[in-house]
Amino acid sequence: MPTPVTLPDGLPTIITTAITNLETVKRTRYSISGANEPLDSISVQADTLVRSLLLIKDIHSLQTVRVGEQIYQIMDLASRLGASMLVIAADSSRRTTTPPEGQEITPDNYVYGHLQTMKGQLQEARDTLFELVRSVLVGVSGNPKDGFWVIEGDLVGVNERVEGVMGVQLRLFARLKGRIGKGEAEGTVIELDDADIEHLGLPRVSGDLVEQWRATVGVETGITRESEQ
Question: Which H or E run includes 142?
Fold first, then answer.
């Protein structure tokens, strides 16, 4: 029996395992007769999650603690959904090879309701992951003393890829898009004003409170003592 994957195994391992579990969900869908609506939706959502996880695996700046924790939840959920669908597929196979032939899962069957619940769980997991990715402060550097700024190229490049795969914009990009493209030099930075800093939840104080912020929110944004050096 394989050893369960846990958070200490690291995000690359968790992503790989989550993708494997999601592929099982996608593959098993075609072994189940009937219930086309929830099954098609489950398959589409699983495919979207696979592509999203591959993107996150490829973009280090999106690999925040909260995103990683959600991917772990997706890995676990996909494992349970895949196991359930394998059982449903086995039962479906028996039904279609035993008279009366052609018996499928219909809306009045309890299995149909179970598949609807699975669809909702996968949808919720996907929506949560998308919201967490949207909230990542890609390209932000600085500190409370000197101020904060955004490396425009980093933000634009990551947002373009996120939008292409997930169909959503990073919140930071949406806030700053009116100021993007104003500079002509490579490596252009966008200075964040007080309103930006407050909106994004960045620290505006120094000393112990800043150190406390580094240990919590800072790890989510990638703004740590090392990144300021």
Answer: strand 140-143
pLDDT digit string, tens, across residues 48-94: 999 999 999 999 999 999 999 999 999 999 999 999 989 888 876 66
Q: Which of 113-117, 157-161, 172-176 has the lowest mean pLDDT?
A: 113-117
Q: Alpha carbon of 40 to those of 9, 26, 53, 164: distances in Å? A: 32, 9, 20, 22
> Residue 227 and residue 126: Cα distance in Å, rounded?
30
pTM as predicted: 0.80
The separation between CA 219 and the C-alpha centre of its own chain, rounded to angstroms, equals 17
Torsion (CA) 107, 111, 115, 120 in degrees, nearest 10: 80
Kindly list the distances between the CA atom of residue 131 and the CA atoms of 63, 127, 134, 135, 171, in Å, as whole numbers in the listed order: 14, 6, 5, 6, 9
Helix (H, G, I), strand (E, B) or coil at 134: helix
Q: What's phi and psi for 64, nearest 5 deg?
A: -80, 170
The answer to whether the bond into 100 is cis (omega within 30° of 0) is yes
CB atoms within 10 A of CB 229: 5
Are the C-beta atoms of residues 129 and 122 closer than 8 Å to each other? no
Q: Which residues of 117-134 are buried (b: 16+ CB within 10 A; e: fewer)?
A: ebbebbeebbeebbebbb
- The percent helix, strand, coil of the chain (3-state, each to 5) is 65, 5, 30
